[in-house]
Amino acid sequence: MLKNYFKTALRNVTRNKGFFALNFAGLYISIVVCILISLIILHETSFDKHASNVSVYRVVNNSVSQTGNTYEAATPYPLATAFRAAMPDEKLISQIHFEKEDLISFGDKKFKEESIVFADSIFPKLFPLAVKQGEIKRALAAPGFAILTASTARRYFGNEDAVGKRIKLANFIDLEVAGVIADAPSNSHLPYHMLVSYPSLKSHLIGDIPLDKWSITADGYVYIGLSGDNKVKTTENVLRSIAEKYTSKDNPGTKTIYKLQPLPDIHFNQLYAASNTSYTINYQYLYLIGAIGLFLILAACINYTNLSTALAIKKSKEVGVRKTMGATRAHLIQQFLSETFLLSAVVIVAAAFSIRFFLPSLNSFLDKNIPLDWLNFKTAALLMVLWVAVSLLSGLYPAFVLSGFNPIAALKSKISAPKTSVVMLRRGLVVFQFLTAQILIIGAIVVAKQMDFVQSKPLGFSKEKVLDISLPENKPAELQTLRDQLAGIPGISSFSLSLGGPISDNNVNTTFNRKEKYSVQQLEVKIKAGDLNYLKTYGLQLVAGRWFDENDERQAALKMPDSVKHYAFVLNETAIKALGFASAQAAIGKYVTFGLNHISAPVIGVVKDYHVASLHEAVAPVLMVQYPFFYYNVGIKFTNNYSAANLAAIEKVWNSVYPKDIFETKFLDDNIASLYKNEKRTQQLFNLFTFVSIAINVLGLIGLLSFIIEQKTKEIGIRKVLGASVKHISFILSKDFLGLIIVAFLIAAPIAWLLMNNWLRDFAYRTDISWWVFVIAVLSTLAITCIAVAFQTIKAAFANPITSLRTE
Q: In sequence order, what DSSP letters do the residues of 518-559 get, joined into one string?
C-alpha cells in the first residue's frame, strides 16, 4: 500500500511540474536558511560545555560607586595569589593573562600572532588540552616555555617537529616550544593559538604596569574549579573578604565585589562583554534569528497549502474516481500526505547536500568556525524534525480538504465554495506572510537608519586621514629617532605619540577625584596619554585653559620618580561634571589625583567631550596626561595631498627604527568602522532575510491567486460578457490582497516597533524610529504585491469568456 502511495505521488509530481517547481523553490529556500540558522544557534549554545570533572567559574569584578556600577571580567593580577592563600584547600585556582596580539620571531621569520594566553600549571586541569607532541605539565610551571596549537606549529615550522624549537615573543621574551596541542575549540570563550608559561609574563609586556598593583586591571583573569555548587556562596564570601582587605584601601568610596561567573554564562552575559577575551552574543539575537527561521518555514508551508488547494479542481476527478472505487477518506489523506512527504524529502536532501557549499561563506561572513557533521545526533535530528514538521504543516490541511470532496460533485468538477471558516483561515495565513515580510522590511530600514546615524554622528575628534601605528617599544631614543624621521616626510600634517587614538584598543582605566576628596572617594576615569601634538593630530576642541606645552613635556620625560615630577592634566567636560565643578573654567588650576602612582597635578585645560568607545556606550570621564611610559602608538595626520608614496616613506622609517618588527597600519576611520562589524552583519542579514521572505511571499501570492482565479473562472467570463474591462477585472481579483496587506501592517507595525526599539536600546546614542519607516514598509509591500499579481490577473482578464463559461 505504501509503495503504491509513493508511486502515485511520484506520478502526480511529474504531471504537475509547475506545482512541483513552485513548491520546491519556496521550501528549498526556507529550509536552507532554516538549517543555516539552526547551525548558528546550535553552535552558539554549545559554548564552554566541554567535559570536566568540576564546575569551572571565572572571577569577575563588580564595582559600585557614586557614579554607578561597573562590570569587568578582568581582575587585578595579585588576586590569584591572595585567593590561594585564603583558600589553601582549593587546588584549582588558575591565573592567566590574555595577549590579544603580539610579535613572534625566530631566525628571519616574523609572525603577528593573535590570542596568546599566559597560563599556569592549573590551566590544563580546568580546560582539558589534547597533547599531540611533547610534555606540558611542567612547562607551564616554569618560565621560558611555550605550547603551540597544531595549526600554529604548522604555520611556523611546516612539517618539522616543533618541540625544542626556540621562538621570541615581543622581541624580548625567549621561549622554548615544549609541546603541541590540538587547536582550541571553536565554541570556547577563550581562544588561543599559543600558551606561554605564566611565570614568563613580565610587566614590560603590558606597558610596564606593575603586576602587584590592586588598583590597576589590564588583561588578567582568574578561574576556579569547584566540585560542588554548594561551594559557590562560601567562595564568594572569601572573595568578598579579599576585596575588603586589599581594594578598600586603594579605592575608598568604591565598593568592589568579586563574584563567580559560571563558564557557560560568559558567552551570553552582556555585562562583561567589553572585557571578554572573545565575542559575546545576546540571547535575544538567537531568539530573533530563530523566529525568522521559523517564520520563513511557516511561510513556505503556507505556500504549499495555497498551491495545493489551488489544484483542487484538477484533482477533483481523481478524488471522485477513488471514492467511487471504495477509497476511504483516510486512504486519500494518506495518499495526499505521501505526496507532501516525497516532495519535502527531495527538498531536505537537496538542502542538506547544498549546505556544504553555503556554510563556508556563512563562516567567512560571520567570522566563525561553525562545524557541519550530519552524523552528529543533534544535526541529524534537526533534518528529521524538519522533514516531519514541514510535511505535516504543508500537507495536513490540503489533504483534509481534498479528501473531503463529494464524489458526485468531484466527478462533475462542481466543487462547492469553501466555508467561511476555511476562507478566513486561508486569509489569516496570507496575513501572516505579509506580516512577516513587513516586520523584516521595517527592521531592515531601522538597522540601516541606525548605521547611517552611527557613521554620520560627530565623535568630537577628526577621524579622516589619520593613520594609527602600534609601536612595539617605547624606548626614549627610538621614540626620538621616530619623531625626527617622520618630521621630514612630506604629506604629513602632524603626528602624535600616545597610548592610542581617541578610540583605540589600548585603554587604561583607573580612579580619580579632586585632591582633597581622593582619600575618601574615588571615581572611575579613562586615561589617555598623549604628547604635545595629540590635540592637533586628532582634532580635539579646547573649551577652557590650555593644552600641554614644551615645559610639560620636559617634566614628563624626566627620569625621576612620579612624586617629584610636575605633571599637568587636561580633562573632558564629563570629567569636569563628575568632579562637581560648576564650569570648565572653574576647574582650571584645581588639583586632581588619579590612581596611577597616586599622581596629583593641576588641571590646565578642558576639551570638549569626545567618544572613546562605540556609540553603544555613553561618553565617559577622560583624563589626559603626558606619560611617555604609555606611548605605544603613533597617530599620523595627513594633508590633502598624501599618497602611497607617503605610506612607503613611513614604512621605510619604521623599518629603520624597528627592523625586527612587522609594519602594520590601520586608518582611524577603519578602526571605528570595525566597532560596528556586528551591526553591519545584522544589517546584511536583515536584508537577506527580507529578500527571502519577499521571494517566498511572491510564490504564495501566485498560489493563492491561482486558487482565486480557479474559483472565479465563470464569474470572470460573465463579467467580460457584460462588458467589464481588463482594468476592472484586475482590480476585483487583487483588491482582497490590498485589504490583507493593510490588516497585516496594523499588526506588524507595533510588533516591529517593539522589536527594533529593544534593539536600539543597546546604543547609548541612537536614531529614532520615524513614521516614514512604516510608510515605506507598507508601500513597498503594496508595490511588490501589485507586481506579483499583475501577470496572473491580466492573464485571467484577457482569457476567452467562451472557454470560461463552457460546461461539460
A: TTT--EEEEEEEB-TTHHHHHT--EEEE----HHHHHHHHSS
- pLDDT at position 163 is 93
pLDDT at position 784 is: 79
Phi, psi at 116, each rounded to 5°: -105, 125
Give me the sign of the Cα torsion angle 73, 76, 81, 83.
negative
Q: Count CB neighbours of 591 within 10 A.
A: 13
Closest C-alpha among 124, 172, 125 to residue 144: 172
Cell numbers at 49, concatenated: 560545555
Rounded Cα gap, residues 139 and 178, in angstroms: 6
**H or E element in which residue 466 lies:** strand 466-470
* pLDDT digits 0-9 by tens, 471-507: 888 888 888 999 999 988 888 999 999 988 999 877 7
Separation of alpha carbons 123 and 117, rounded Å: 10
pLDDT tens by residue, 173-184: 999 999 999 999
Most distant CA pair in the chain: distance in Å? 109
Please give the full DSSP string across 103-161, using - where no structure is assigned.
EEEETTEEEEEEEEEEE-TTHHHHS---EEEE--TTGGGSTTEEEEEHHHHHHHHTTS-
Which residue's C-alpha cell is 467580460?
720
Please state the rounded mean pLDDT for residues 200-213: 79
- Is residue 802 pLDDT above 80, yes or no? no
Give me the mean pLDDT over the 644-652 stretch: 88
Distance CA(575)–CA(597), nearest Å, equals 20
Q: What is the mean pLDDT of residues 695-708?
A: 71
Q: Which three cell numbers mark 283?
A: 540571547
Residue 617 DSSP SS3? coil
| Coil/strand/helix, residue 588 | coil
676 three-class SS: coil
Q: How large a percentage of the chain has pLDDT more than 90?
A: 31
| C-alpha–C-alpha distance, residues 186 and 175, integer Å | 26
Instruction: Name the grid cell of 8.
Output: 502515485
Q: What are phi and psi of 255, to 5 degrees?
A: -100, 120
Query: Quick one: pLDDT band at residue 149, thresholds 50, 70, 90?
Result: very high
Which is it for strands 93-106 and 145-149: parallel, antiparallel or unpaired? unpaired
Confidence of residue 808 (pLDDT cuts 50, 70, 90): very low
Strand-strand pairing, 173-181 and 145-149 = parallel
pLDDT surpassing 80 at residue 649? yes
Which residue is associated with the grid cell 476511504?
Answer: 328
Rg of the Cα atoms in the chain:
34
Give dist(CA 451, CA 462) in Å, integer.
Answer: 19
Pair 145, 196: CB distance under 8 Å: yes
Residue whose grid cell is 595577549: 99
Residue 621 near residue 586 (C-beta atoms within 8 A):
no
What is the residue whose three cell numbers read 538549517?
35
DSSP 388-433: HHHHHHHHHHHHHHHHTS-HHHHHTT-PPPPPHHHHHHHHHHHHHH
Chain centroid offset of residue 772 CA: 28
Distance between CA atoms of residues 231 and 238, nearest Å: 11
| Residues 6+ positions from 576 with CB-CB distance below 8 Å | 583, 584, 587, 606
List the beta strands (DSSP E) in 296-402.
Answer: none
- Written as nine digits, the cell of 336 is 495526499
Distance, in Å, from the CA atom of 619 to the CA atom of 613, rounded to the nearest integer, reads 8
pLDDT at 625: 93
Average the pLDDT over 781-799 and give the result.
Answer: 70
pLDDT tens readout for residues 105-114: 998 898 989 9
